[in-house]
Amino acid sequence: MMRYLVKRLLYAVPILLGVNLLTFALFFVVNTPDDMARLQLGTKRVTPEAIARWKAEHGYDEPLFYNPKAAGVDKITDTLFARKSAAMFVFDFGRSDDGRDIGREIRTRMWPSLAIAVPVFVIGLAANISFALLMIFFRGTYLDWAGLALCILLMSISGLFYIIAGQFFIAKLWHLLPISGYSGGIHALRFILLPVLVSLAAGLGSGARWYRTLFQEEVGKDYVRTARAKGLSEVRVLFGHVLRNGLIPILTGAVAVLPLLFLGSLLTESFFGIPGLGSYTVDAIRAQDFAVVRAMVFLGSLLYIVGLMLTDISYALADPRVRLG
């Protein structure tokens, strides 16, 4: 197990470098450092001296990937890509283009994101699995078909509709919860409840339908028929056998969303005014703040790699037949 973890960690380094390289290339194809300087300076007529001064102050005056003026290894290391990327591997994200500490912003903003994402993940997983098992319990009946029709209906509605409908009915019309905003401490519950409810409603249809398909496949296998032949009740068969043997694909889907738990939801946080990492990323893209965008892409890639490692480990724990070499 330890050798496997070390090997995966070593694999993560070139992957993160490749993601960083691609991010640099794509961003600077769209925006050159000169364009970034003009945007940040915010004036129509910017002098070349002002642009050069801004680039020097923010570290954008170096060549992007290759420095022909340097000697030896410095041709690669004395570049914008090397200077900006190396520090991130020790979680030094530097400062944004407006001068704020990115690491401090991430540590501050991750808590509102987690306050929404964790309840959505836990309650949503339990609700999706329970709804799917309920449809399997009544499979072939009108309740099963009604449940499937409801899932398809929920899937067919845009996530934006749930947000607008929730804000209109629950917040504006009935005045049960705030329409947007955020507050610290115990008062945060009033502000995160509506985003959590909206996110749960938006994800119920696709989640329950996927788990139903998964459990439907398990129900037709020989071990289920054997369990029924031994006289076990349908409830014990579903929860003791079908659910247990469906853990591996469930773990795959559950662990894959771990980066979203930390990084937050771009759409939800933006519409509800939650100062989380999702809205932080959207604001950075809108302002063309490359330092923040680069940091969030790096963080998302790292969390996704960690999620894949946790998925493989959970395989071994859930199924004794799986061994990590």
Please, could you describe this protein's structure?
The protein is mainly alpha-helical and 325 residues long. The protein is built from 16 helices and no strands. The termini are close together. Helices cover 74% and strands 0% of the residues.
What is the CATH homology-level superfamily of the largest domain? MetI-like
Return the domain count: 2
Q: What best-fitting shape do the alpha-carbon axes yield?
A: globular
Instruction: Tell how many strands the DSSP assignment holds.
Output: 0
> What integer value in Å does the Rg equal?
25 Å
Could you list the spans in which at least 5 consecutive residues all have pLDDT below 50? Answer: none
The helicity comes to over 70%
So what's the oligomer here? single chain
CATH architecture of the largest domain: Orthogonal Bundle
Beta-strand fraction estimate: under 5%
Give the end-to-end Cα distance, rounded to a whole number of Å.
7 Å
CATH domain topology of the largest domain: MetI-like fold
CATH class of the largest domain: Mainly Alpha
Secondary-structure-derived class: mainly alpha
Write the layout of secondary structure elements.
Layout: H1 2-30, H2 33-41, H3 48-58, H4 74-77, H5 80-86, H6 102-137, H7 142-156, H8 159-173, H9 188-219, H10 222-229, H11 234-245, H12 247-256, H13 258-263, H14 266-272, H15 277-287, H16 290-318
Helix pairs in contact: 1-16, 2-3, 6-7, 6-9, 7-9, 8-9, 10-11, 12-16, 14-15, 15-16
